[in-house]
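Structure first, sequence second, as always.
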């Protein structure tokens, strides 16, 4: 009877497989395993994640390989190690030669949808390949200003549900939540409920929105026959070992992540497994559950462990190059098994990590160390120097033109640092500087630029290769219009990291303000060589070209950006200017209207819409646009004077004309047009008296 029952269950499972199951992959950024309810026994804290764990399996011993967002998500979606991908840090791009799991599903007829919540995972980073819909529009502006870099969980859930309205089975949906990332600022009521632990407040808020996502999909019948995977990408320091955030060290708080897999009716429920596994095991597991044979992956399917308890535990490769690429510190690479963790550093470390990661057991000739060092040799280190890393990336046949362009602009010619060179700071000795850097940023954001500059100069004195310190200091100098000091900072930054699109952009802006437009153009082109979708560089470069009457070049750049769906107000504004100069008023009108839809505070776009309306004889419309512009920028005398002229010449309304001419005079009583305005007002009032 038992054999017959097992046979029937197998047939049921095969029938489900035959229906091509849906897949939902939910990734939790910066989420430690020991801050999730089912991992801690803390009931009611993360009820929605815990509910999925009850319906499926949660893995007690899951680890990431590298505590950074982009590399970890690349590991999840490819099933490959960071050493195989050679994608070590945020800000680079996954090489197109690596197959992503969504590409496999798309070929099998799946609808593929992704909604991400951090600029770190934007389309340009290479993880969007294979997704028919890739929603990466951010809304939350960073403290220091600039374009939006992330969005809250409720917006992510809303976007995911909107995208799924158009999707039928089978589908592959990836939803990424970023909320637990620093800084911790959960919305009400979580800010009050977790006032003493805002990190947990962010996790609880994220959990609520995961619940809303899954309940809404279930209500619409879209959770039937669905594999659900919930995985953290890495953890968070919370000041353990002096690290507030993550990326510098590879201790347990950074590597130990939640991993939960549920497939109701196929996989067991309420099962806890303690076999050691990693993020690269997710892709082959999902594929095998969907009846697709995994190929060419470093990871292994977890189904033998889930179904039969069979699992050959292997040691885990771990690394971080974050400190090296950002601060010029020594990189960390290591090996861990169930008992020991070895970290290769200027001051090497060996721990019985389950007992303590404070008591270093390292001895140079110890047998365990020798064994781990030999294992470490199996995993290629990052190429020597970040410039070499970029060169190798660009030497891919699909990027040869980019390589030529960067070299022609004078980059990639230096030798750069080397990860293994002697004298690099051990991250254990440098970690206090990261906290100093964070404090300097907070002081800058508070408006105390002088104190922030002094702190940053001290950091750079101790650590001249500290790229973020150079960047922040350069940004302060640029804000203060101290252009030469800003130029030095950004130039030094680019000597260390020539592929930093933001540094090229900033240096271009410095040169633009200096009036050195040839050098500004070079830097904007360099930024676009590294990141072809950098909208700020497109807008600034096209503005220079338009002002130099190089309309054809500007038009090519702008139209390419628009055709590539670069939704940026400045790009549409420059395109509007160009079309208006060509007297293509309808196209110009569209671009300026699009500018206003993306940035309602752009008064210049409103004024240009007013000018086009005037050219087309639409006086009421022109007045309305200029009035909107004047409400945004009430100090612009020209807006009021233009409205006055429209009432005078277009509407023959002397009273309104005088009213707006007086407003123009009040806005700029000593300007170059002030005397003309006074005479105009006096003449109109005399004319009114005659009437």
């Amino acid at each position: 009877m038992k054999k017959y029952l097992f046979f029937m269950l197998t047939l049921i499972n095969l029938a489900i497989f035959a229906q091509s199951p849906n897949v939902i992959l939910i990734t939790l950024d910066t989420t430690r395993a020991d801050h999730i309810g089912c991992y801690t026994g803390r009931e009611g804290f993360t009820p929605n994640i815990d509910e999925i764990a009850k319906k499926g399996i949660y893995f007690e011993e899951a680890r990431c390989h590298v505590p950074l967002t982009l590399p970890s998500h690349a590991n999840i979606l490819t099933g490959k190690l960071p050493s195989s991908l050679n994608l070590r840090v945020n800000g680079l791009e996954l090489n197109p030669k690596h197959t992503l799991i969504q590409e496999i599903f798309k070929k099998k007829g799946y609808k593929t949808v992704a909604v991400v919540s951090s600029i770190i995972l934007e389309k340009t980073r290479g993880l969007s390949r294979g997704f028919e819909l890739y929603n990466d529009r951010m809304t939350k502006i960073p403290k220091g200003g600039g374009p939006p870099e992330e969005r809250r969980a409720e917006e992510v859930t809303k976007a995911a549900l909107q995208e799924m309205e158009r999707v039928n089975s089978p589908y592959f949906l990836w939803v990424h939540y970023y909320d637990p990332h620093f800084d911790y600022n959960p919305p009400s009521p979580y800010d009050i409920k977790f006032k003493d632990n805002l990190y947990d407040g962010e996790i609880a808020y994220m959990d609520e929105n995961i619940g809303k996502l899954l309940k809404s999909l279930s209500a619409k019948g879209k959770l039937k026959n669905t594999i659900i995977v919930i995985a953290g990408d890495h953890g968070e320091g919370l000041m353990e070992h002096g690290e507030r955030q993550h990326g510098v060290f590879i201790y347990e708080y950074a590597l130990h992540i939640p991993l939960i897999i549920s497939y109701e009716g196929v996989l067991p429920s309420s099962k806890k497994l303690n076999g050691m596994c990693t993020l690269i095991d997710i892709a082959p597991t999902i594929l095998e559950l969907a009846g697709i044979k995994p190929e060419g992956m470093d990871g292994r399917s977890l189904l033998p462990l889930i179904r039969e308890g069979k699992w050959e535990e292997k040691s885990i490769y771990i690394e971080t190059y974050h400190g090296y690429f950002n601060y010029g510190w020594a990189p960390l690479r290591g090996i861990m098994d169930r008992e020991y963790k070895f970290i290769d550093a200027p001051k090497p470390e060996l721990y019985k990590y389950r007992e303590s990661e404070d008591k270093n057991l390292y001895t140079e000739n110890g047998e365990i160390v020798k064994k781990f060092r030999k294992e470490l040799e199996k995993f290629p280190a990052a190429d020597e120097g970040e410039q070499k890393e970029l060169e190798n990336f660009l030497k891919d046949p699909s990027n040869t033109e980019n390589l030529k362009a960067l070299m022609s602009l004078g980059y990639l010619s230096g030798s750069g640092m080397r990860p293994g060179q002697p004298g690099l700071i051990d991250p254990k000795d440098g970690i206090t500087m990261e906290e100093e850097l964070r404090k300097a940023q907070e002081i800058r954001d508070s408006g105390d630029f002088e104190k922030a500059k002094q702190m940053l100069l001290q950091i750079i004195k101790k650590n001249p290769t500290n790229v973020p310190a150079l960047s922040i200091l350069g940004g302060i100098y640029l804000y203060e219009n101290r252009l030469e000091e800003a130029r030095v900072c950004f130039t030094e930054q680019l000597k260390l990291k020539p592929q930093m699109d933001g540094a090229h952009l900033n240096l271009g802006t410095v040169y633009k303000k200096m009036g050195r437009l040839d050098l500004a153009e070079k830097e904007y082109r360099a930024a676009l060589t590294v990141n072809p979708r950098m909208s700020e560089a497109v807008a600034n470069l096209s503005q220079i070209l338009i002002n130099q009457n190089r309309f054809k070049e500007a038009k090519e750049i702008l139209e390419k950006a628009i055709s590539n769906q670069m939704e940026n107000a400045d790009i549409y504004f420059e395109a509007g200017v160009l079309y208006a100069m060509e007297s293509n008023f309808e196209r110009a009108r569209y671009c300026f209207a699009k500018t206003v839809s993306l940035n309602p505070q752009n008064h210049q776009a409103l004024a240009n819409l007013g000018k086009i309306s005037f050219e087309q004889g639409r006086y009421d419309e022109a007045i309305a646009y200029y009035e909107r512009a004047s409400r945004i920028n009430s100090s612009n005398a020209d807006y009021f004077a233009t409205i006055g002229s429209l009432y005078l010449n277009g509407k023959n309304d002397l009273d309104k004309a005088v009213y707006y001419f007086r407003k123009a005079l009040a806005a700029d009583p000593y300007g170059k047009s002030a005397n003309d305005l006074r005479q105009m007002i006096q003449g109109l009032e005399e004319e009114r008296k005659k009437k």
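Margin note: The radius of gyration is 29 Å.
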